[in-house]
């Protein structure tokens, strides 16, 4: 057996490898912490608001995203992985949410919304919904969305306030700010 270099046996040569491994472990820890925070937030909101479903719609690229977390009153209501109506969410809506727009719809059947939006919400079995943006310094990170599926619902100012508070907690969490995905 021929040895070309003494470097193979030099423990200091593994420092670069160790730093890379440490970065991977740090990122994994941040991801686990972020996931736990989002899961806790969606569960708390569903219980506080007494709704059928609370989801986090995460934007993985400009105005493309999907439901990455959900808390459900019934497993049959799952929409995990749903990407939303491509033709309905455009730059105009994105700009409104980037500016802090909160959207509360008491009854999708009576609200003056785009037909594609109404059809999309019907397909998700939504009757009333409340949408609050999660805004981080880089922009619109995601949307916290509460769905009431069984009947219309008049959203209270306190419902909106608690959603905004939880969105702010997410938006300022170090595990979200330091971990882009």
From TrEMBL:
Residue ranges of every copy of the Phytochrome chromophore attachment site domain listed in the record: 33-165
Top-level taxon of origin: Bacteria
Name of protein: GAF domain-containing protein
Coiled-coil features, chain-numbered ranges: none
One Pfam family linked to the record: GAF
Lineage: Bacteria, Bacillati, Cyanobacteriota, Cyanophyceae, Oscillatoriophycideae
